[in-house]
């Protein structure tokens, strides 16, 4: 579902960077939060990957196989601004990056920043930041099962719930194409 209240925004919307360089994605929060999650959606691998959780005490928890040398989070002194730093860029870092917060049993995702990593930058590229996005964020309601005794840690259920949502959204175009193909075959069979 979509949330109408803007709790966080991301800039820039798009980044084109050169391999072996570094980049930064900014997440602005409307108030101080207990922690900020960062995720990456890979179009190539069709998966949603948990990268890092940065809590209010400045402690970072990394996802599985996520390099601490590559990813780091910095929080501004105002504590309402948080940035993801990605170094040693490689084409495998291509994807859409999301900052996220958990509030009132819901997971709110920012508008996303699409990162493209290339070996050589185009000559006409201008490195300007896009204005703050006013798009609504996605939110996912925590299941009732997670509130029962022995429930999974938020570091497990949040990426899982978000991954399921993204997977379901990615199936919509496939279902539409299948429906059109089926209709075409039906029309062809009835013409003969």
TrEMBL record:
Entries under SMART domains matching the protein: IG (SM00409)
InterPro entries, per the entry: CD8B, Ig-like_dom, Ig-like_dom_sf, Ig-like_fold, Ig_sub, Ig_V-set
Nucleotidyltransferase among keywords: no
Localization: Membrane
Membrane topology: Single-pass type I membrane protein
Naturally occurring in which organism (per UniProt): Antrostomus carolinensis
Domain Ig-like stretches: 12-110
Transmembrane segments: 155-175
Keywords for the protein's UniProt record, in alphabetical order: Adaptive immunity, Disulfide bond, Glycoprotein, Immunity, Immunoglobulin domain, Membrane, Signal, Transmembrane, Transmembrane helix
GO biological process: adaptive immune response; regulation of immune response
Molecular-function GO terms, alphabetical: coreceptor activity; MHC class I protein binding
Protein name: T-cell surface glycoprotein CD8 beta chain
GO CC terms, sorted: cell surface; membrane
């Amino acid at each position: 579902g979509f949330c109408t209240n803007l709790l966080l925004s991301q800039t820039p919307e798009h980044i084109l960077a050169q391999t072996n360089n570094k980049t930064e994605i900014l997440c602005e929060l409307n108030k101080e939060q207990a922690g900020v999650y960062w995720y990456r959606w890979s179009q190539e691998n069709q998966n949603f990957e948990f990268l890092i959780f940065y809590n209010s005490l400045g402690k970072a928890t990394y996802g599985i196989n996520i390099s601490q040398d590559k990813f780091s989070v910095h929080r501004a002194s105002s504590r309402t601004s948080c940035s993801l730093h990605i170094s040693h860029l490689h084409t495998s870092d291509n994807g859409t990056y999301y900052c996220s917060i958990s509030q009132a049993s819901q997971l709110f995702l920012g508008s996303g920043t699409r990162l493209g990593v290339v070996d050589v930058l185009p000559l006409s590229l201008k490195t300007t930041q896009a204005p703050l996005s006013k798009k609504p964020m996605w939110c996912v309601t925590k299941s009732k099962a997670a509130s029962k005794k022995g429930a999974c840690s938020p570091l497990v259920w949040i990426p899982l719930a978000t991954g399921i949502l993204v997977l379901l959204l990615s199936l919509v175009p496939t279902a539409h194409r299948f429906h059109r193909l089926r209709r075409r075959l039906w029309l062809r069979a009835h013409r003969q």
